[in-house]
Amino acid sequence: MKKIAVLGTGYVGLVSGTCFAEIGNQVICCDIDEGKILRLQQGEIPIYEPGLEDMVKKNQQEKRLSFTSDIPKAIQESEIIYLAVGTPMSESGEADLSYVKAAAKTIGQQLNSYKIIVNKSTVPVGTGKLVKSIIKEHVQDSCVDFDVVSNPEFLREGSALEDCMNMERAVIGADNDQAGQIIADLHEPFHTTIFRTDIESAEMIKYAANAFLATKISFINDIANICERVGADVTHVAEGMGMDSRIGSKFLQAGIGYGGSCFPKDTQALVHIAQEVGYDLKLVQSVIQTNEQQKYAVVHKAKEIMGDVNGKTIAVLGLAFKPNTDDIRYAPSLTVIPELIKAGANVKAFDPIAIPATQQEFSMKLSQEQQQNIAYSTDLYGVLEGSDACLILTEWQEVLQLDLEQAKSKLKVPLIIDGRNCFSLEMMLEKGFTYHSIGRPAVDRLRIPV
Ligand code: UDX
């Protein structure tokens, strides 16, 4: 059992802190946001993540997990301090390290005994060294020692608890072997593969892994766009490609592009890191560009198919960047919906949980008049009622299980534009829809005889 303080109760901090408590450690999660801490103390979870609320409550009741805004005290009482503060993207695409620097300063000021400071925030290469120097600068008692370790996070939103409890690997970057071993031992109950390396390489692994996954997505989206033009089916192409174990079948689902808190931010940050050292990272730049274009491609597709969207009502299914989360950061819906509105369409938007976040985002981004052209509902079939087309942006379970007969009876025109390839072409043909998806032949009931 270790005494762990986790600084930052965002996604990563909250999930990792809870999982460390679950495996038997004494964890105290800290944040400067007192209101958030107060809500957490009362069992109110600020993010939607399946299973998290129950696991937090259980560990709170069993006295392994607590929350505080008294960060100095939490630091003083802990042996291991996890840094899980935000590193948002700055205007230039660079990771903003102000929260990391502030946390390092506080740790330095409060360092009263040997501690290991572990970085879980996604930070540019070299931040481990920077954290070390900031702490050193602020320690009061120069006899007190500490070590800095990098332990990047690979959680996926929507399955974060499962990813954490059954992690595929734990990357541990340390210059001091003993400190690295303590963090490796901490991961023992997760029964995972431990990969030990130096701090810089660990920091780089996180960016390289996310940029590679983003590359796979943009690559298959590019292939999908060609497939549409040559009459091939990208799902077959991906399946055939994926059978080569060197390529692998995962992350080859064509769609309307990646979003979320990691890929957009981390790809930009990697390009920036490369620039800083005088390297022009063209490949990742083009991955980012393809991803941007892909969001607009679905709007062009809608305009092309519908002739003109002006005055038309479009049912948009899904606002979150992926299912099982209320996270809308860099979600394709944030680009697609304003584009449709600007083209004169009315949007009826469905999402089971991401409506409040989207409304808040659009209240800052769109004019009053534009906002009035969007109606929100958690009633899927209500959104389809009387709409001229259905546009799928997130593959929520409700959407995958759509009752197509009912959907057809609700829609004014049986037209589905599917940005997530949710349905088989055969099914859509059989049910009599005009169906346009990504990288697959269109099913046009007017042209293809049933
Ligand atoms: C990702 C990484 O998977 C995780 O390891 C990292 O630590 C954080 O970033 P997350 O953003 O939660 O996790 O979601 P993920 O499931 O990876 O999906 C990211 C985006 O890619 C989503 O918008 C998703 O729709 C898209 N995607 C994913 C595709 O378009 N096609 C695919 O084949 C896979």
Structure, explained:
By secondary structure, the protein is of the alpha/beta class. The protein folds into two domains: 3-197, 3-Layer(aba) Sandwich (Rossmann fold); 198-450, Rossmann fold. The chain is 46% helix and 14% strand. The chain contains 19 helices and 14 strands. An eight-stranded mixed beta sheet has the order 3-2-1-4-5-6-7-8, with helices on both faces. Strands 11-10-9-12-13-14 form a six-stranded parallel beta sheet, with helices on both faces. Strand 5, helix 6 and strand 6 form a beta-alpha-beta unit. Helix 1 (11-22) packs across helix 3. The chain is elongated, with a radius of gyration of 24 Å. It starts with a strand and ends in a 14-residue tail after the last strand. Uridine-5'-diphosphate-xylopyranose is lined by residues 153-157, 210, 213, 217, 251-253, 255, 258-260, 262-263, 321-322.
How would the blueprint of this fold be written?
Elements: E1 3-7, H1 11-22, E2 26-30, H2 34-41, H3 52-61, E3 65-68, H4 71-76, E4 80-83, H5 98-110, E5 115-119, H6 127-138, E6 146-150, H7 160-165, E7 169-174, H8 177-186, E8 193-197, H9 199-230, H10 234-242, H11 263-276, H12 282-306, E9 313-317, H13 333-342, E10 346-350, H14 355-365, H15 368-372, E11 374-377, H16 380-384, E12 389-392, H17 397-400, H18 404-410, E13 415-418, H19 425-431, E14 434-436
Parallel strand pairs: 1-2, 1-4, 2-3, 4-5, 5-6, 7-8, 9-10, 9-12, 10-11, 12-13, 13-14
Antiparallel strand pairs: 6-7
Helix pairs in contact: 1-3, 5-6, 9-11, 9-12, 11-12, 12-13
The structure holds uridine-5'-diphosphate-xylopyranose (UDX).
Residues 153-157, 210, 213, 217, 251-253, 255, 258-260, 262-263, 321-322 line the site of uridine-5'-diphosphate-xylopyranose.
